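Working notes for the structural subgroup meeting. M.R. asked for a predicted model of this chain before we commit to crystallization trials. I am recording the input and output together here so anyone reviewing the notebook later can reproduce the run.

Input as submitted:
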Amino acid sequence: MYTYLLRRVLLLIPTLLIVSVIVFLSVRLIPGDVIDVMFAQMSVSGRSNLPSREALEAALGLDRPLHVQYLSWLGDIVLRGDFGDPLMAIEPVAVLIRQRIGVTLELGAMAIIVSLLVSVPVGIYSAVRQDSVADYLARSLAIILVSVPPFWTGTMVMIYPSVWWGWAPPIELNPLVEDPFGHLGHVLLPAVVLGTALAGLSMRMTRTMMLEVLRADYIRTAWSKGLSERLVVIRHAVKNATIPVLTHVAVQLPVVIGGAVIVEEIFQLPGMGRLLVDAVGRRDYPLVSGINVVFAAVVVLVNLITDVTYSWLDPRVRHE
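Returned structure, recorded in token form:
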């Protein structure tokens, strides 16, 4: 196990290195650059003494070759944990990420919990009652949840309650320590919107794996021993069927992050997704790169944790 963990941790290094190169270059391929955004803002503010493009590039360090900028940025992260300073903000990138990452992690965790609370029980019941009316209803629900994107659901949740009942979700997010119930209540609705969008695929995966497990020989042996349906399903079938579902949840993590970007913007949550949208609009290269590297690190760490938990769910799995 320890050898396997060491290999996986060492594998994270080239993975994150490749991601850092892709992120660093891709954000600079977006049409327009930060200098154009600065000139536009200066023109709107009515400034007459506009600096030259060369002066702004030199002040921001953008006049250096790309490989020099990349090595300098990567060296600061590796050696000092410093993601640099934003081009159009006062606080360092690491501080901005630290202020926002809690909201995004909370939203993502609650969305995954909502997804599992909906998909796993419904998927199990649908498999146990195969080809019944409940099974057909569950399969139809899964198709609907897969088909409806979270940005549409979030927009409808924002618009129709305010039109019909004069109610709209709160805009300002209270700190968790000051108002725990108000804080959780504010995050719960976006989490339900994002979680239900994820639940459709998880529901179909749970049903498929349960059907496969229920046809296994050891399940037929358990039935032949006269065990109750509850005991056979919960003790023998569910645990073996959840391993692929767990893998599916880990694979969905990038989808959760991408959905959080949209949902945070719709519900005005001060998370990293909303920060990323603002940074892309301003072409703030260090901020966009730092946020994406943190997202990538979270994804690879969660996948590592998922692989390690396999041996707990199934003793037959051994990591060597």
